[in-house]
Structure formats: C-alpha cells, structure tokens
Amino acid sequence: MPFTHLLIKVPTAEFEAIVKFYTAALKPTGYKLIMDRPGFAGLGAASPDFFIKASDDAPTTNTHVAFPAPGMYTDQHQTKEIHPCGVRRC
Asked: Which of 2, 10, 23, 51 shows the greatest Cβ crowding within 10 Å of its Cβ?
C-alpha cells in the first residue's frame, strides 16, 4: 500500500535550510514548494505530500527518504541529476 503523505520534524534553527535543501534536491522530480507557512512546509508535484515541520521537542533523526524520479527504472539521467544534489546537500 503506498503512502499518501510523509511528515518529518526538524530542529527549528535548521528549518529554513532544510526546506531549501529539499526544494532544490527534489526539483528534478517535479516537486516544488507548495505550502510555505512559518515552521511548516509542504512539497509535492501537484499537491503537497511531503511535509516538513519545525519542532524542538522531538525532531526526526536519521531518516532516509527516497523519492521516485521520472524514468528512474529506464533512464538513469534523472537519477544521476538528483543523487549528487542530495549527497552534497544542495
């Protein structure tokens, strides 16, 4: 069963940098920043399904998130474009 959405909690002091990172890293997949509120962001292709929340009470740590790239199983171009950005933290 596929997920309908995902939320990660991040330290408040790092919130803006993390939103900027995911916005840049996911751009090749068609994802963009759709919901931008103080301490809360939602990214997605057509509607938000990946949410980032600023929180200092229990931030998410050591989370691995993988997003499908268009053509990822047939065309390695998209994957090659996304992976380096994620590794170097755009």
From this structure: 10
Question: What pTM, to 2 d.p., does this model score?
Answer: 0.74
65 token code pair: 């998130």
Q: 10 lies in a domain?
A: yes
| Sign of the dihedral through C-alpha 35, 36, 39, 43 | positive
Domain with 17 in it: 1-47
> Which pLDDT value is given to residue 34?
97
- Asked if residue 23 belongs to a domain, the reply is yes
Q: How far is CA 43 from CA 59, 75, 81, in A?
A: 19, 24, 19
